[in-house]
Amino acid sequence: MTPEVKKRIEQIRQGIVPEGYVKDKDGIYPRDWASKKIGQWLKLAERSIVLQDEEEYQLVTIRRGFGGVDSRGSFLGKNVLVKNYFIVKTGDFIISKRQIAHGACGIVPPEIDGAVVSNEYNVFLPQDGTNIQMFNLMMQLPHYKRLFYLMSDGVHIEKLLFKTQDWMKRTLAMPLLKEQKKIAEILSTQDKAIELQERKIEELKRFKKGCLEKMFPRKGQKVPEKRFPGFTDDWEQRKLVSLCEKFTDGDWIEAKDQSHSGVRLIQTGNVGSGEYIDKPSNKKWISEETFRRLNCEEVFAGDILISRLPEPAGRACIVPNLGTKMITAVDCTIVRTATKTNSKYLLQFLSSQSYFDEVNTCLVGGTRQRISRSNLAAFDVPIPAKYEEQKAIGEFLCGIDNLITLHQRKHYLILEDIMLNNINKMDLFYDYYAQWITVYKEGAIRKVTMDKYLLTQSWIKQLAPELRVCELSRITYQKLLNDYAKSHERQTTMDFHHQLKGAVLDAVDEGLIERDPTRKAIIKGKKPRHKKIKYLNQFELHKLLSNLDLGQEINWDWFILLVAKTGMRFSEALAITPKDFDFSKQSLSINKTWDYKGEGGFMPTKNQSSIRKIQIDWQLIIQFSTLVKDLPEDEPIFVSGKVYNSTVNDILERHCKKAEIPVISIHGLRHTHASLLLFAGVSIASVAQRLGHSSMTTTQKTYLHIIQELENKDVDLVMRSLSSLN
């Protein structure tokens, strides 16, 4: 690449229009390129066919991630339910209408010429002046990948439907046909280089897997199949903990304990399978004072960290020298090997398939299974008696790891070189945000949270449809917040700001924005509306409970009673099974929730703090011991089909009206429970733990009005006490 070309690329990256280029909604591109609607570059093919029962047809599948078009196999017409299909020809461009948000599109190769597809696919032909290879490459650029997602409607990422006609109205800038062919030829050559690099990486991984199988003894054997010359002694079987000088867990660090500098907190996400994963944009720290106050366990370079959480549970890495004092999270086990144990050898054992197979037999928990430290400690580790043999194996296998890493870096450099020409700061901000959600949030958060992000994206599109990423500044960002605040309360605006900030900061890290536009943002909002009564007093609650129909079988009235006496969240109470009751200890375990807004089924709790045990009174214990004795112990006691919170709220509303007390929701019973505990003198810390709040700060904010009322009572008490001294 010549200096002139590099300079031009850098100008485009900065949003500068070089001489001979133009700038519009399609980005910055040469003046002689043509900007046309996609429907002018492609046209829909119409080769309909009705499948005949005794005829054989080849069906098509399209791999996600722009993985290409392939054969799904041959089928008799009578074995295909839908008979109306379309014929595809070599060079056609196909889109899977239900999978295009995941990059399911591509060009029909010669080997499946004449295959058929259903109406779940769009089949396109190139118009005059269109090179289909070039078009296919353009569709893989970030802007057009995001466009596939934006042109799809639906409530779930796996159930989106592509809006073909809307997509065809969008514009695409491409050069003349001759230049298209040349560009496609060059980029196809680069694709081959990437493919070759990927093949080398896969070959090395297979080679290492074979080495791991042959260089460790099989179960029941004392020596491995392959050994280094000069070593003949039988291997030993040692418990993992016996090979360690230190074997302990990291520290429980809450959000309130974190700071912007000081002691580095290594998280489970930093622990890869055999490698440390650096995440520059997600570094966490605690202060030296917090380190001393919490009496944290220091981690040193050369220590091994084992993540007890998926995916996969049990993965391990050696801690590199990060140039700072370090600690780790509570779900990481710190392993500091003893003098006669080689840490590189132990790491390779912790990367073997036999080790992970053993880990999978020890996993505990619900949806998010983990392995306990005690189970890890009891693992049998095959180990050479001589340290020298351990070292030789460790160095050899780590050498293969380094070779894999080297080839991966080459792979990334090739990709970076290709993508350098495709970075486009001119993307609309709502387009960029939609892609950011897909990349960073899809599959990592619960559906209810995902819906909030998607709502935020729709608001950006509504409030700033023309705002481009490169135009984000403190002023444009503040204007976006101000426009949102006109129709929302201050707290809602704050939530909107927090959801935007993650994407904006990533755009800064990517060099798409020079400075952080979210710095010193002012949060406004309209006057809060009058809030309904959220909780009952003790007398009102007594009237409500007296009004319940508590029969011999489980019903929603029993559900209301349980929530009122425990303060559980709605989804937590739905997930309660007979197994969760400990009748001897008068406690109830909260370790899961029920997905009542989705397809049903158990889900993880809101956060780690929500996993807890709630003490309950003896009356409730006796009542539920009778109610659940004949029910399946692992199935929810209140769920028998689709559950709607409106159903239970309606029942509660009828009881409130009948008892002549304020109408509240099921969530209001949670507020009632907490309020009564606080008025009774129970500490905020105990209330926070009972409710499953991540910190006392949450409890204080939620129940500030009650705390203030209690403080006023305390003032009255103080004054009465002082006046009695006369």
Folded structure, characterized:
There is one protein chain. The protein is α+β, with helices and mostly antiparallel strands and 726 residues long. The protein has 4 domains: 24-174, Alpha-Beta Complex (Adenine-n6-DNA-methyltransferase TaqI, Chain A, domain 2), CATH 3.90.220; 236-383, Adenine-n6-DNA-methyltransferase TaqI, Chain A, domain 2; 429-509, DNA polymerase, domain 1; 538-712, hpI Integrase, Chain A. The protein contains 24 helices and 30 strands. The strands form 11 sheets. A 4-stranded antiparallel β-sheet has the order 4-12-9-10. Strands 17-24-21-22 form a 4-stranded antiparallel β-sheet, with helices on one face. It has a 4-stranded mixed β-sheet with strand order 18-20-19-23. It is globular. The N and C termini lie far apart (93 Å).
The 3D shape can be described as globular
Runs in which pLDDT lies below 50 for 5 or more consecutive residues are 418-425
The total of helices stands at 24
Q: What is the CATH class name of the largest domain?
A: Mainly Alpha
Task: Tell me which CATH architecture of the largest domain applies here.
Answer: Orthogonal Bundle
What amount of the residues lies in strands?
Answer: 15-25%
The assigned structural class equals alpha+beta
